[in-house]
Design brief:
single chain; alpha/beta; eight-stranded mixed sheet; eight-stranded parallel sheet; binds zinc ion
């Protein structure tokens, strides 16, 4: 049914990888980018032509941090529903997290995720495996087996690796397979059961907070361990001024350290917790303005490599409870584009940098394919209408999760067409399923 040739016409091509920024026509043949032509260039007969006037044609967006919840918590999300959410948000590829039930700490479960993803036929999935068996922070998992099965990264996300000796060995072992280790930085002794950022807001609300230093000390520790081992360290959901400073300095030292920040951490402050809304409960917690400002600076100056959503769907069972008892996390995939473009409108970052943070940067951080519209590359393409105004309605999310602090927000910017390997998986005239 689908034509072999699709032409995206009249759009603005914005590709940080090749430096192209301007009116171009994109021709896609047999799942690959066949040509980036001047707007008036004649196109071969028989192509399906899609008009992209007023829109940006960008490399498919890539999210380094997504919880798909399968196996084990399919009531929160399945690989299929998570990938529907991904493409609705403009993402053509996601890195899945291993803190499922059971934990993905072996090649068999890595293959399970890849098989399910292939069946879904929507966004691509790059699975990650656990740093330690069962994410218990004790014995290292089998990185070589998992990499052979398709894993691109190791992480105990959701939990810090508290033992620095284990962390050192993890970095050394992962280095042998050239795999990054992503870290969830939270010193549990300093956090001491706190449920939000420690500061004036936690004091006012009478909620137990924990200090930004719980993140800072772990980031500093792991940067030194990356220096000691020469391993690849990726700081997940970085949220503090201290962490931004530490990563900036690590890069200056030439260490193999990368970092990501989430839309919620650069958009909201701990004031969002003021109504005890559990949709504002996450880990790391929402921080005070000085930390948000530091993260914005890190996004602008290149310290932070990627915007990642930490998409973390939960059901009402986990969220409709007292604040202290609620699970951490929010639905992230479907609101990332407008929240990122809001930074452009505020003048924090430019348009090209926004796309770099959502696509080229994440691919570079983990050495993933994609992140470019170069001729010959797989046609993973996202078309964004930067002017589209819409209201965030969690009830109509493609994700099974409804836990978003952005419900009711009027936002601007949306992915209107998403192609994976040249196939339209969201928007356009057809949908895959
Ligand atoms: Zn996470």
């Amino acid at each position: 049914m689908r034509p072999e040739m699709i032409v995206l016409q009249n759009g603005r091509v914005l590709d940080p990888a090749t430096g192209v920024d301007g009116a171009r026509t994109v021709r896609i043949e047999n799942g690959r980018i066949a040509a980036i032509d001047d707007p008036g260039a004649r196109q071969p007969a028989g192509a399906q032509v899609l008009d992209c006037a007023g829109r940006w044609i960008v490399p498919g967006l890539v999210d380094l941090h997504v919880h798909l919840r399968e196996p084990g918590e399919e009531y929160k999300e399945t690989i299929l529903s998570g990938l529907r959410s991904a493409v609705a948000g403009g993402f053509t590829a996601v890195v899945s997290m291993p803190n499922t039930k059971p934990v993905i700490d072996n090649a068999h479960l890595v293959r399970f995720v890849l098989d399910k993803a292939k069946e879904a036929g929507l966004a691509k999935v790059y699975p990650s495996g656990a740093t330690t068996k069962g994410q218990k922070g004790e014995a290292l998992a089998e990185y070589g087996d998992m990499k052979s099965a398709g894993a691109v990264m190791m992480t105990d996300d959701g939990h810090p690796v508290m033992n620095p000796g284990i962390m050192r060995r993890a970095l050394e072992y992962a280095k042998a397979f050239d795999l990054p280790i992503m870290v969830h930085e939270e010193d549990l002794n300093l956090a001491a059961g706190g449920c939000m950022h420690e500061g004036t807001v936690s004091m006012r609300l009478g909620l137990k907070g924990f200090p930004a230093a719980a993140e800072d000390v772990m980031v500093l520790r792991d940067i030194e361990l990356a220096s000691l081992t020469g391993g690849r360290l990726h700081i997940g959901h970085l949220s503090t001024a201290g962490a931004v400073r530490a990563v900036r300095e690590a890069k200056r030292r030439g260490l193999r350290v990368t970092a990501e920040a989430t839309p919620h951490h650069f958009t909201l402050t701990d004031e969002a917790v003021a109504t005890y809304d559990t949709n504002a409960k996450m880990c790391p917690p929402l921080r005070s303005q000085e930390h948000v400002d530091a993260v914005l600076e890190g996004l602008a100056d290149g310290t932070i490599d990627a915007i990642a959503t930490d998409h973390a769907p939960h059901s009402s069972v986990e969220k409709d409870v007292e604040f202290e008892r609620a699970s951490n996390g929010i639905v992230g995939l479907e609101t990332a584009v407008p929240l990122t473009l809001a930074l452009v409108r505020r003048g924090v970052i430019g348009e090209k940098r926004a796309i770099e943070l959502l696509s080229t940067g994440p691919c570079r951080a983990f050495g993933l394919p994609g992140g470019t519209l170069a001729v010959g590359a797989a046609a993973d393409v996202t078309v964004i209408d930067p002017a589209a105004e819409w209201t965030v309605e969690p009830a109509s999310f493609e994700s099974k999760g409804r836990n978003s602090p952005f419900g009711g927000w009027k936002v601007q910017g949306r992915a209107v067409l998403v192609m994976v390997d040249g196939r339209i998986v969201h928007g356009g005239e057809q949908r895959s399923r």
